[in-house]
Amino acid sequence: MRIDLVSEHASPLAALGGVDAGGQNVHVAELATGLARRGHDVVVHTRRDAESLPPVVRTGAGFAVEHVPAGPATAIPKDELLPHMEEFGERLAKRWAEDPPDLVHAHFWMSGVAAQRGAAGTGVPVLQTFHALGRVKRRHQGDKDTSPPQRIELEAEVARGADRVIATCSDEVGELTAMGLPRERAAVVPCGIDLARFRPDPRGVKVRARPRILCIGRLVERKGVDIAIRALADIPGAELLVAGGPPASEWDDDPEVARLAAVARQAGVADRTRFLGQVEHDRAPHLYRSVDVVVSAPWYEPFGTVPLEAMACGVPPVVSAVGGHLDTVVDGGTGLRVPPHDPAAVAEAVRSLLARPEWRAELSAAGVERVRARYDWSELVQQTEAVYRQVAAFVPGGGAP
Ligand code: UDP
Questions:
Q1: Where do the domains of the chain lie?
Q2: Whose CA is nearest to atom 17 of ligand 1?
Q3: Residue 308 neighbours by CB distance under 10 Å
Q4: Do the domains 212-374 and 2-192+376-394 match in fold?
Q5: What is the pLDDT of residues 301-352, one digit of tens each?
Q6: Rounded CA gap, 172 and 137, in Å?
């Protein structure tokens, strides 16, 4: 099949850890790679956000990335991209009128707006993965939510207009049906892990003189890194590594970095907190394997790749009991789940893991097993492809099998 993925802000070629570059970029890159490996002709459409980007890049992984001119060729925060989606959609419409794919899969709501506009009248089926939902974001972030005010309404339209919505966790399906999506048009395929890269340390669980905790991800407030920093005050002797954040050139001006550094000072743990900045995704497995516990304590989490990467590397995660974490982390089985917004609960969970290396080894082994059994990208690409084939078979004129 010729499969076109649309990912307006999240390029599969981008460096990760910045405010708008995280799990979606990894997801799109892995899906495109896996589909190409299975013999499909895959094109990813992403916004051209730098003058230096060529119109088309053929990746070594066998898929193409087309840089779509929509708005200025500069970085724009994703919450300011909506005005450019009309142009994005028009470009797609032109491209697909000349050379239609068998199927389109849009990632994030704005890609859905552009993709559905681009595919209108062509008979090409459009599938949707949201990665995050505006109504959930608004519920948790309230006034701090910088999404465009139309988001919630447009998102519901995108859900209803899609031929199928592929959710990444069961919690999301409840939200989607509340938005008016008939249950039979929702499928669940979680995000996966590249098991060739994210592997445990063959030497097993270690006991270090100075225990190490890791937080890795985009440095945005809702990711709850401050909760891990506050927890550190009650985890004597441990050090906390924080990976992610803006590129080094913007580090000193970043308000979230300044806020987190202030939290570390106030909590009296500045000397035990190390900000590493962005870590190349290829280096992430090595980083995971160098720590004893990973903490991921977001306020809410549409999926949450980080705990799975930790489990794949044999490191038990301590996570907030929200969203995708409820599916991925077995409490007391592969990691520990704690209430959100609760540094004391994080500290207690981490201390209990650090105090019992043999228990950590059990959780570690069970975590590796769980990720292998359920979250192998190659298996999930096949599940996604099965949804594609179902949809292509039902849409008149859509998708050759
Ligand atoms: N990541 C990375 N380097 C960094 C920060 C993050 O490679 O400096 C990766 C991390 O390994 C994970 C992704 O970014 O694969 C974050 O995904 P997650 O689903 O946890 O959060 P999201 O960013 O999608 O909200």
A1: 2-192+376-394, 212-374
A2: 23
A3: 28
A4: yes
A5: 999 999 999 999 999 999 999 999 999 999 999 999 999 999 999 999 999 9
A6: 12
Closest CA to 162 of 397, 399, 391, 396: 391
Ligand 1 pocket, CB under 6 A: 16-17, 22-24, 26, 216-218, 243-244, 278-279, 281, 284, 303-306, 309
Which amino acid is it at 166? I
Closest ligand 1 atom to 277 CA: 8
Q: What is the pLDDT of residues 217-267, one digit of tens each?
A: 999 999 999 999 999 999 999 999 999 998 888 888 999 999 999 999 999
Kindly state the helix (H) or strand (E) to which residue 164 belongs, with its residue range.
strand 164-167
Strands 212-216 and 293-296 turn out to be parallel
By the 8 A CB rule, do 220 and 257 touch? no
Q: Retrieve residue 13's tokens.
A: 């070629």
Q: What is the pTM of this model?
A: 0.90
CATH architecture of 2-192+376-394: 3-Layer(aba) Sandwich (3.40)
Q: What is the CATH number of domain 212-374?
A: 3.40.50.2000
d(CA 321, CA 338): 6
Atom of ligand 1 nearest to the CA of 298: 25
